[in-house]
Structure formats: C-alpha cells, structure tokens
Design goal:
It is built from two helices and 25 strands. The protein has 324 residues and is mostly beta strands. The strands form five sheets. Strands 1, 3, 6, 7, 11, 12 and 14 form a seven-stranded antiparallel beta sheet that branches.
Length: 324
C-alpha cells in the first residue's frame, strides 16, 4: 500500500453556520493544492488517490465534479481505472474535551454508482484509541449534486476522536468521491431554522396511483391535498416539526415526524387533511409553528401561500354534432 503525507496550512472560519456555534477547526482547501500536514491518506491507486485541485482539475470524462468555491479534495476512479478499493483520507486528531454537541460538517459529491456488477461505496469511520481500532460511523448516500452533511459526534464529547473518509470502487471501474468545506463545530442545538416554500395543491388519482401537482384551477367540491416544501437552513438536522394551513375558516395543524433534513436538505410534505374547493377565490396559507420542538430562529421564512381558484362546469352548455 502506498502512503502519502502532504503539507499545507489549516484554514479557519469557513463554516456558514452562526456565531452561536463554536468552530473547533475548519478547512476549505483553497490555499494550496496539497493536503494539510495534519492529514494523511492511504491508497492502492496509481493516480495519487486523494488529490486537491479545482472541480475541473479533478474531473474526468464520466466523473464530472460540479463547480465549487475553490479547491476540493477528490479521489477519481474513472480517471485511471486502477485500484481505488480502499482510498482512506485521515483528518487531524480532534480534541472534543470541552464540547457539548460536536458535529462533523462537510460537503460531498458522490454518485454511489454501479457498473458491470461492481458497486462503489463511501463512508466515514472513527477511532477513539488513536487509530488502533476503527468503526464505521456513517455511510454516505449518492446524489447528482453537492450535498451538505452534519454528522453527530456527541458520543465523542469529552475526549479525542480521529475520523477518516473512505472511498472504495468495489473492485470495479466506477466514478469517485469529492469533499469540501470540512469542519468540526460545537453546535448550539437550540438554534434551528426551517424555511417554507413551494406551497401547492395536489389531486390523487388512486387508479394509477399518482399525485398531480400541476394545476392552479380546480373544480368546485373537489378534494385536494395541500403540500409545502420544507428546507433546513442551518446545520442542526431537522427531525420533526409542527406545521399548519389556513383556508378560509378552516385551520389544520399537523406534526411531521420520521424525517432527517441535514443543512440545505428539502422535503415536500403532503398534509393528511385535504381541502374542499369552494366556488370562490381563497388564499391557502402555510405556517411553520415549531422545529424539533423549538421556536424557529428566523420567523421571516416560516410562511408561504397560494391562491385557490374554484371553477364550475356549465351544465347548460349545448353541443351540436353533424352526422356524416
């Protein structure tokens, strides 16, 4: 196995969270095209494994890394079709002695692809005994764009932890993985912010079954499902929330559970209580009441609305047909 140790300087202060969160360390890799001296990697590949460069510089024909705010760190299996079965990128030892709610935050681009029976995988591993023993902490899921991640490291609060990113091509010719904007922060977990947008109405065709969101005019007395998009604007993951809609005199409040929205993640929620379309033009308003049982830190993005148009068919309309 080849082992490479690279030098660079550590960059502080990149996290776009808030002053209420204490940044233990952070790095965006923009000042150099080599890894920090406190980081290390191991690889079997013949193209240097994890490398630092621009998104364009680390891309290849079948693995195009989307644009980023400067350099990224990437291992590219598509580029050389060589052995990327155990590309491990070790971060610096992290002291969490004086923390309460430490989180590892980062951005990742990873497709989770398959090819000719081989599957790539990408995960984060941790060690609490100086790298003697490693355990799997989180398996990263694939997506076609950069994703934000916030991994709960609270189990390591009060001690030290080592962590590493591990990419494997599964023994085949796959794509790769890229990371950027890595940080360890002590989060104020009472600081939450969800935004509402994309209010809509849906009709359900049970015979298909399918849900249609495309229409803006509806038949009188038709039952429709209100829906709204919820986006997490901060680092603390959103696991539940309370939300309501108001339609004329009707006010419906529902609790959303069983979700996990990391920073930047969105979720479309369909209410279980439908509305009945009146012969009128009425506003349908959505309001966010609480997030994780807490008051949202920013009230200005907690409301969205749309106008519902009720139309009625003309029952007296005559149709003339000429028979040939």
């Amino acid at each position: 196995m080849k082992k490479h140790l690279f030098a660079a300087c550590l960059i502080m202060g990149m996290l776009n969270a808030n002053a209420q969160n204490d940044t233990i360390w952070s790095i965006n890799f923009n000042d150099s095209t080599v890894l920090p001296s406190t980081w290390m990697q191991t690889t079997y590949s013949t193209n240097d494994g994890w490398v630092v460069n621009t998104a364009t510089g680390v891309s290849s024909g079948f693995f195009g890394v989307p644009a980023a705010d400067g350099n990224v760190v990437c291992t590219n299996d598509d580029e050389c079709n060589c052995d990327h079965s155990a590309d491990t990128l070790f971060a610096m030892n992290t002291d969490l002695v004086n923390t309460d709610n430490p989180y590892l935050t980062f951005q990742a681009f990873y497709l989770e692809g398959s090819y000719t029976g081989y599957d790539e995988n990408f995960k984060v591993i941790t060690s609490v005994n100086g790298g003697i023993d490693w355990v799997e902490h989180t398996v990263i899921s694939g997506a076609t764009s950069w994703q934000n991640y916030a991994l709960d490291f609270s189990e390591f609060a009060g001690g030290d932890v080592l962590f590493a990113f591990v990419y494997s091509d599964g023994g085949g010719w796959l794509f790769g993985a890229a990371i950027d904007n890595v940080a360890v922060v002590d989060l104020d977990t009472t600081l939450v912010n969800a935004a509402l947008s994309g209010g809509n109405l849906a009709s359900v065709i049970s015979a298909v079954p399918t849900t249609n969101y495309q229409y803006y005019k509806h038949l009188v007395n038709e039952e429709l499902i209100p829906s709204v998009t919820i986006t997490n604007e901060l680092v603390v993951p959103i696991t539940d929330l309370e939300i309501k809609y108001t339609f004329g005199a009707e006010v419906v409040t529902e609790t959303v559970t069983g979700i996990y929205l990391s920073q930047g993640g969105s979720y479309v929620y369909d209410f279980t209580q439908p509305i009945t379309v009146p012969l009128d033009t009425l506003a349908l308003t959505f309001d966010l009441l609480s997030v994780n049982g807490l008051t949202d830190a920013q009230a200005s993005n907690n409301t969205t609305s749309l106008t519902v148009y009720g139309i009625q068919l003309n029952a007296n309309k005559k149709v003339v047909v000429e028979e040939g």
